[in-house]
Amino acid sequence: MVRRRFAGERLHLTVEGATLERLLAEAGSAVCELLAAGPAGGRPDRLPVQIRARDPERLLAGFLDDLLQLAHAEDFRATRIERLEVDETGLRAAVPGRTAAGDAAVPRVIARPLTARGGPWRAEIELGP
User: Fold this and answer.
1) What's this model's pTM, rounded to 2 decimal places?
2) Can you give the CATH number for the domain in which 20 is found?
């Protein structure tokens, strides 16, 4: 589950998942939706994403940072998350999307606390210019 709230130019996401894998999928999908608002068109592509980290907060941070870095550096706009796998060494996923030149602003992750207190995993993520 993802709840979105805008505060000025910043977007606050509250993401919950029954498992860490579900939380990562929800957070990644929310970032993909945001990136899809960029320029239309372009060449279809699929890129692998692999994050090596044992700590759940580092997994989340690395995953979102990679999705946004692909948009910044490669003009690649991820459209969804496929084959997300999480194990004791990290995360792997296939990320389909479109590569297109464009000057649309790509947000950056400002904060990303992650908690898991006896129930669903929960993350508070702030994206901004």
Assistant:
1) 0.86
2) 3.55.10.10
